[in-house]
Amino acid sequence: MKLTDIADNAGSRKKRTRIGRGIGSGKGKTGGRGGKGQTARSGVRIKGFEGGQMPLHRRLPKRGFNNIFRLDFAEINLDRLQQAIDAKRLDPAKTIDAAALVAAGVLRRAGDGVRLLGRGELTAKVTLEVHGASKAAAAAVEKAGGSIKILAREAAGDDKAAS
Known about the structure:
Blueprint: H1 56-59, E1 74-77, H2 78-86, E2 95-96, H3 98-104, E3 114-117, E4 127-130, E5 132-133, H4 135-143, E6 147-150, H5 158-162
Parallel strand pairs: 1-3, 2-4, 3-5, 4-6
């Protein structure tokens, strides 16, 4: 085998269509853009235009709003917590908080805090520090002999006012 013998597989590279190179090419004259007007020009788009009829996005009513102060909690279920303890990624003897969960790879990021949910079963005796917990989750932790501390939530505007 020589360097001159090496070639791509047939059909692996496609030549780009050169438009606007005469009518004989099949992509000449208008260059695949149809007739004249706004749509034939570059950089222009009539998005949502319905020929003068009231567009759908204006016919439908507006509804709801986005709360800019909403806190985004990372949620974790009891079964996932127990799984991490069984895999020796979390130490049940130490206090488990948001930083410990992120370090163990149980959560990707803590967000505005961690909220504990009650799916699954917890057998290990653990001490938890979370920003919220469902009633079922709190009952399951205490049933297993552990304790749970609910941390105070910081308002979104407080940290900006302090700095």
